[in-house]
Design goal:
By secondary structure, this protein is an alpha/beta fold. It is about 55% helix and about 10% strand. The chain contains 13 helices and eight strands. Belongs to the 1-acyl-sn-glycerol-3-phosphate acyltransferase family.
Length: about 375
């Protein structure tokens, strides 16, 4: 794969952004001409648009880089509940590609197109990806509680009114884990008598407790996702490694927790969240110390399962790539023959732009470039 890195990344960039552009147009069409008359139909069709877009990077990870997730999961719960009900996802926010591993497993469960998240409001203005999320009705927050509590209440009702099961991701830590943020998080916990976590930041409970009253009755369960990579892995888990065709090995333990297990009182629910993250911390610690999520965590062991890549993701990528490459080559060749140098170099410029956008996105996904929000909040 290394010899094809430059060409492969260009093909991925062109396919990803071209697909996203046409998905944006189709989403806009649905919002203008379908949603006012039939919201259910609009949201059903929206699933296939977002699925087609997300599939591009799932295909890159699985078919191009050869990565696959080792999932530890209760077989009975998977058969009875997974992707058959609405769910709130709680996931550790530690790695550059934690979101991509979540896409990979939700693709196997059959609800990738209906996977949504709480996200920073500024992200909805990011061309293509941000617009896809905006029109797919993600929950965008200002990080201003007085404004956000209203948005959360209203938008949760929208998200969980979808005809098919929706999984909504909440990164309760608020920002991606870094050593600097963890140091401040430990200091914050010690000063306030909160449990000190080794592998997580102290969870911010406000968003969780604010969501609970609305969630009850429309979202029956929490899906706790614990993601880890071996520390001695030869390939770093990053978007760059996937675009370079390098294989990574994610390990994931997923468990279902009925929402009824969470206390209704706000303070008790906040305390429950703190205790829950203590258990999550033990799970990750057990993995890093013993190679197993279960040996020292006190959590019941469940079997490991590896899912084969779905042919649909490969066919989706091939379809978009074929259309993109065919159109580009046709226009370049006809422009060259006709002496249309403006058109010819315009295509070259667009290709360079797509490649540059991909490089920028990869750079922005690096842990070193993550938001300083957690550090600032802890410092305050």
């Amino acid at each position: 794969m290394g010899k094809l890195t430059g060409l492969g990344r260009l093909l991925i960039a062109v396919t990803f952004f071209t697909c996203g552009f046409f998905v944006n147009i189709a989403q806009l069409f649905l919002h203008i001409f379908v949603k006012p008359f039939d919201k259910r139909l609009c949201r059903s069709l929206m699933y296939y648009l977002t699925y087609s877009f997300y599939c591009i990077l799932v295909c890159v990870a699985e078919w191009y880089a050869g990565s696959s997730v080792r999932v530890y999961i209760d077989p009975e719960d998977e058969k009875k509940y997974f992707a058959k009900e609405h769910g709130l996802l709680l996931m550790n926010h530690t790695y550059e590609i934690d979101w991509l591993t979540a896409w990979m497993v939700t693709d196997k469960f059959g609800n990738l197109g209906n996977t949504k998240a709480y996200a920073k409001k500024m992200l909805r203005y990011v061309p293509i990806l941000g617009w896809v999320w905006w029109m797919a009705e993600f929950i965008f927050l200002d990080r201003n509680f007085d404004k956000d509590k209203i948005v959360i209440k209203e938008q949760l009702k929208v998200v969980f009114s979808y005809p098919d099961p929706v999984w909504l991701l909440l990164n309760a830590e608020g920002t991606r884990y870094t050593a600097a943020k963890h140091e401040l998080s430990v200091k914050f916990a010690q000063e306030r008598g909160l449990p000190v976590l080794k592998h997580h930041l102290i969870p911010r409970t406000k968003g969780f407790t604010t969501s609970l009253p609305t969630l009850r009755g429309i979202c029956p369960a929490i899906y706790d996702i614990n993601l880890a990579f071996k520390r001695d892995a030869k390939v770093k888990p990053s978007m760059l490694s996937q675009l370079n065709g390098e294989t990574v090995e994610p390990y994931m333990y997923i468990r279902r927790v009925p929402l009824s297990d969470v206390p209704e009182d706000e303070k008790e629910a906040a305390a429950w969240m703190q205790e829950f993250f203590m258990e999550k911390d033990r799970i990750i610690d057990s993995f890093h110390e013993t190679g197993s999520f279960f040996k020292t965590s006190g959590v019941k062991e469940v079997p490991m399962k590896m899912y084969k890549p779905r042919l649909a993701t490969l066919l989706n990528f091939i379809g978009w790539a074929t259309v993109c490459v065919s159109c580009i080559l046709y226009y370049m060749i006809t422009s060259f023959i006709a002496g249309n140098w403006v058109g010819f170099f315009a295509v070259i410029s667009v290709l360079a732009l797509f490649y540059g956008l991909m490089e920028h996105a990869v750079n922005a996904s690096k842990i070193s470039k993550s938001s300083s929000y957690g550090a600032k909040q802890a410092a305050k």
